Each structure stands twice: as structure tokens, then as C-alpha cells.
Amino acid sequence: MQCERVEIGSKWQHFKGDVVKVVNIVKNSETLEEMVVYEHKDVLWARPVSSFLSSDDVSTRCDNVTGQKYRFERKED
User: Fold this and answer.
1) Angstrom distance (rounded) from CA 18 to CA 30
2) DSSP strand pairing (34-40 vs 19-27)
3) Under a CB-based contact definition with an 8 Å cutoff, are residues 37 and 50 in contact?
4) How many CB atoms lie within 10 A of CB 57?
5) What pLDDT is stored for residue 1 in this prediction?
6) What is the largest CA-CA distance in the chain?
7) What does the pLDDT profile of the chain (77 residues) look like in tens digits?
8) Burial (CB count within 10 angstroms: exposed 0-12, middle 13-18, buried 19+), residue 5
9) DSSP letter string over the chain?
10) What are phi and psi of 50, to 5 degrees?
């Protein structure tokens, strides 16, 4: 997992090009796993923090339009 911290209000770029905004950090009621709630094109989505900050290298995927290494990378404001 990346050594980043996901903060409410921060913006992240997905490797397919879109920028998402973190709305909240919540816990799954069954597993207590932390989840990132983020907004993408006016729709709220949730993904486990471990998946959001995955260190899997996506740089060689054919649908990677940004050339970035990780699925989500933080955007500086």
C-alpha cells in the first residue's frame, strides 16, 4: 500500500484520467475496514482504503491515459 494519507476534501487522479474528490472516510459495518467515499461525476463511490492506495503498478495497462504508476495519485491543490 502507498504511504499516503487520504484526507477528506483531497483530490486524486485516477489512471484513466478523471479527478475524484474524497468526501469521507467510513467504516464497513461488517468488517470495520476503513473505506474511502469519493465523488466521481456527481456519483458517490466507496472503495477500501487498501484498494484506493494500492501499490499495484498500473503503468503498463493499455487504458492508462495518465501514465501514472498507481490507480489513484494525489493531486496538489
Assistant:
1) 30
2) antiparallel
3) no
4) 12
5) 72
6) 36
7) 777 899 999 999 999 999 999 999 999 999 999 999 999 999 999 999 999 999 999 999 999 999 999 999 999 86
8) exposed
9) --S----TT-EEEETTS-EEEEEEEEE-TTT--EEEEEEETTEEEEEEHHHHT-----TT-TT-SS--SSSEEEEP-
10) -60, -35
Residue 72, all three cell numbers: 489513484
Side chain identity, residue 27: K
Q: What is the CA radius of gyration of the chain?
A: 12
Q: Residue 30 corresponds to which cell in the numbers above?
A: 461488517
Domains of the chain from N-terminus onward:
11-75 (2.30.30.320)
**Distance (Å, whole) CA 51 – CA 54:** 5
What φ, ψ does residue 20 adopt, rounded to 5°? -115, 160
